[in-house]
């Protein structure tokens, strides 16, 4: 057979050779493969604003991330959709705004341990439900798996729905790109570090390297020992996290895969500190982001384009040479077919644990507009998890004693203005509300109109009480549907698997296997027992089907 092929090729003219090559190149994208697919690595950290040397904050050394910035592109306008993890992670994995899918509140589908002790009837009346995207929405990593990528997550999910087995080849603390079946297999790997999480400031966690007296204090904090102690802990954790980043980069280099790997470094939202986490101010949503290209492209440069978490899924698919699904609501900000930069980013705040809230924000490169839909509520709601922090206890005490200053008004105000407008260039801490300034009425109207246009385009499920929302997500009575059990059939000796629930994904495994495979095409001649399960996001997983072949 090989000899006949060589004879055939020798008979082709030069033009026919080129036509054959061209046809094969056209066929590659159709088959979902590439001649040289890059590896992609997400290095994600938690609860951290851009407190890094490369962003100008020299409080603690961050040599490894600074080195990454010198080798890559540092972004100065990257934003989470929420100032808290679960809704933002929902955005990252789906490429959709949480307000489009019912993923707004923190959290939707389970109670945290700190809430188990609460007997508040209002909180207990809130239904527990999974965010439910429209039919056909999938975790974007599935598209990478279909295209031949080995996808690993180490190891946080927190997607506002139960993580489906179709999303990852591996999702655990042991998940690693090294476990891929072949060194030629491209990989997409997520590594998440919790060392900078809010909870790690509740007590000493990392080695002390920070002098509390040298920390630059934002003006919305009072200068007290408790405040400086917790901030010092946060910086200590940032320094420890930086060492972890260095270890991950060393692994890629030692394995000789760094030259074909695109690395993205970012945080899941801003600082895990009072007046940052859970808020729509930049302290809560602005994140560090660095993109390192394997060929050194634009190394050491700075990019000030607006980037939102809703853009990450379509952009990562584009880096792998894959199309953006039509339902995704973000843009592709990298790749050969990158889209025009966005003019605005959008941010949100809804219920945080037991504290009700509805806040919406629009930001361009300079100005931030905030629309408060619950002006009757104070800025500080009852959030018992947050209140474990010593600095939060200090703030609550100072509030009670009327000892907070004018710059701390967002802590002591018992009601909120309908609208807020901030000049983040001259007021980066967003303290001076300019919404009543006549000279800025035109900017106020522009951003207000952008907010209304956003709602008209994408809707906003956060405006619906959760007791009604659950019936909209799971019609007609708010009972979670179950995905239909997969069915097997034979097609020319191969095994096809189907599911009667439109938009569902299917996973399968052979007898003796522990790992689920994503089903995308008929399975050739298995000659053993197959198991299959189907998942539609937000619905109950199907029963497991089994059949021997």
Describe it.
This protein has 549 residues and is an alpha/beta fold. The chain has helices at 2-11, 14-31, 63-71, 85-94, 121-124, 141-146, 225-254, 282-285, 312-319, 390-400, 409-412, 441-458, 466-473, and strands at residues 39-45, 73-79, 150-154, 170-171, 187-193, 261-267, 286-292, 301-303, 307-308, 345-349, 359-363, 367-372, 419-423, 487-491, 494-498, 505-510, 517-518, 529-535, 545-548. The strands form 4 sheets. Strands 1, 2, 3, 4, 5, 6, 7, 8 and 9 form a 9-stranded mixed sheet that branches. It has a 4-stranded antiparallel sheet with strand order 10-11-12-13, covered by helices on one side. A hairpin with a 6-residue loop joins strand 16 and strand 17.
Characteristic terms for this protein:
nine-stranded mixed sheet, 549 residues, alpha/beta, 13 helices, 18% strand, four-stranded antiparallel sheet, disordered N terminus
Strand content: 15-25%
Q: What kind of sheet is the major sheet?
A: 9 strands, mixed
Number of helices: 13
Helical residue percent?
Answer: 25-40%
Radius of gyration: 25 Å
- CA-based shape: globular
Q: Uncertain segments of ≥5 residues (pLDDT<50)?
A: 1-34
Averaged pLDDT: 92
| Strand tally | 19
Through-space gap between termini: 31 Å
Given helix and strand content, the structural type is: alpha/beta
């Amino acid at each position: 057979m090989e000899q006949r092929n060589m004879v055939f090729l020798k008979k082709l003219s030069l033009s026919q050779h080129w036509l054959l090559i061209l046809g094969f190149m056209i066929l590659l994208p159709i088959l979902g493969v590439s001649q040289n697919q890059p590896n992609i690595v997400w290095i994600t950290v938690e609860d951290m604003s851009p407190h890094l040397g490369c962003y100008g904050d020299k409080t603690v050394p961050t040599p490894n991330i600074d080195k990454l910035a010198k080798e890559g592109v540092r972004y100065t306008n990257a934003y989470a959709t929420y100032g808290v993890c679960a809704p933002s992670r929902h955005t990252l994995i789906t490429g959709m705004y949480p307000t489009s899918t019912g993923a707004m509140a923190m959290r939707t589908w389970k109670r945290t341990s700190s809430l188990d002790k609460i007997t508040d009837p209002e909180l207990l009346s809130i239904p527990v439900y999974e965010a439910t995207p429209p039919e056909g929405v999938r975790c974007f990593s599935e598209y990478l798996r279909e295209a031949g990528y080995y996808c690993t997550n180490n190891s946080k999910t927190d997607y506002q729905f139960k993580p489906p087995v179709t999303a990852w080849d591996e999702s655990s603390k042991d998940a690693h790109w090294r476990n891929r079946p072949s060194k030629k297999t491209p990989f997409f790997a997520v590594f998440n570090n919790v060392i900078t999480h809010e909870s790690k400031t509740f007590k000493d966690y990392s080695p002390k390297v920070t002098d509390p007296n040298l920390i630059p204090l934002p003006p919305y904090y009072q200068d007290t020992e408790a405040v400086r102690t917790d901030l010092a802990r946060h910086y200590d954790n940032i320094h420890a996290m930086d060492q972890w980043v260095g270890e991950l980069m060393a692994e890629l280099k030692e394995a000789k895969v760094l030259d074909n790997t695109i690395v993205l470094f970012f945080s899941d939202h801003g600082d895990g500190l009072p007046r940052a986490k859970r808020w729509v101010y930049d302290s809560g949503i602005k994140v560090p982001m660095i993109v390192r290209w394997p060929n050194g492209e634009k190394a050491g440069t700075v990019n000030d384009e607006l980037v939102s978490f809703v853009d990450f899924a379509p952009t990562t698919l584009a880096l792998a040479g894959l199309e953006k699904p039509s339902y995704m609501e973000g843009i592709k900000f990298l790749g050969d077919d990158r889209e025009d930069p966005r003019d605005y980013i959008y941010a949100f705040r809804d219920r945080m644990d037991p504290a009700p809230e509805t806040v919406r924000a629009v930001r361009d490169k300079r100005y931030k507009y905030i629309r408060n839909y619950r002006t009757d509520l104070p800025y500080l709601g009852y959030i018992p998890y947050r209140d474990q922090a010593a600095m939060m206890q200090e703030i609550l005490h100072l509030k009670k004693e009327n000892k907070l200053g004018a710059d701390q008004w967002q802590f002591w105000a018992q009601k909120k203005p309908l609208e807020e407008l901030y000049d983040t260039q001259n007021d980066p801490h967003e303290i001076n509300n300019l919404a009543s300034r006549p000279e800025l009425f035109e900017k106020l109207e522009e951003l207000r109109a952008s907010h209304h246009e956003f709602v008209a385009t994408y809707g906003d499920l956060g405006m619906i009480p959760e007791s009604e929302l659950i019936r909209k997500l799971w019609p007609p009575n708010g009972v979670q549907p179950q995905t239909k059990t997969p069915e097997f059939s034979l097609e020319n000796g191969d095994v096809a698997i189907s599911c009667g629930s439109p938009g569902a994904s299917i996973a399968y495994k052979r007898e003796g296997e522990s790992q689920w495979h994503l089903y995308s095409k008929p399975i050739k001649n298995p000659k053993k027992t197959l198991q299959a399960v189907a998942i539609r996001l937000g619905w109950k997983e199907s029963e497991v089907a089994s059949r021997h072949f």
